[in-house]
Amino acid sequence: MLRAPVVLSDTAFDVLWHHDDLGEHHTVLHVPPAGANTLEVEQALHREGVPVDEALEALRVLAFADFECFGWIAFNRGSTLPVVVATAGRHGVIAVRDNGHVRLDAVRGDPSDTLVACLPEVRPGRGSSINARAEEARGSRALVELMRRPRAGVAKLFAARRDRYGRRRRSASFVTTIDCPDGRWLVVRYTDGHGQGWVHATPATRPIIREWLHRLGD
């Protein structure tokens, strides 16, 4: 596994991803087809001191993760960061795509912890939680007012697991965080045990965001 962070160009990432026929790129790491010479790219990486074997192992973790948390974090209107944190067995990897490059690093612990730590530091919003039946959400004054507030940042976060047959199962819903003038709010649509759909909004602490990622991923 990676002993230090590795930064790959989109071209190098694409070449290494297809080195082991890992299939489609991860949703948040979709890069244009490189069309480059595989041998030349790998030789160039070796000359630059990139540990290619370690990078390949990290990509296999991303491709065959047991559990992963991923999403898009928008710090402002012009800066959105795609991030995925995945574990496979005892190995963990974070991948961040930014400005034509993919940065890989080894991580330990729960992927939800690492992903949530990527969010900018913002205090929880002020106010009480809001709950509305999904079919009534458009008529909820509190929800409508919340969604109309100015926002400095937004994130859309998902979870996915492998089932016992080895199939990747992405969460049916996702967590949205919105950074408003009063602080950060979490908004999520979910279905309860009776099949009723709900829209839930609450002031968002990091533990609350982590809890919802696990709830959606289970």
From TrEMBL:
Top-level taxon: Bacteria
Major localization class: cytoplasm
UniProt keywords, alphabetically: Chaperone, Cytoplasm
Compartment list: Cytoplasm
Pfam families: ESX-1_EspG
Family of this protein: Belongs to the EspG family.
Official protein name in the record: ESX secretion-associated protein EspG
Record lineage: Bacteria, Bacillati, Actinomycetota, Actinomycetes, Pseudonocardiales
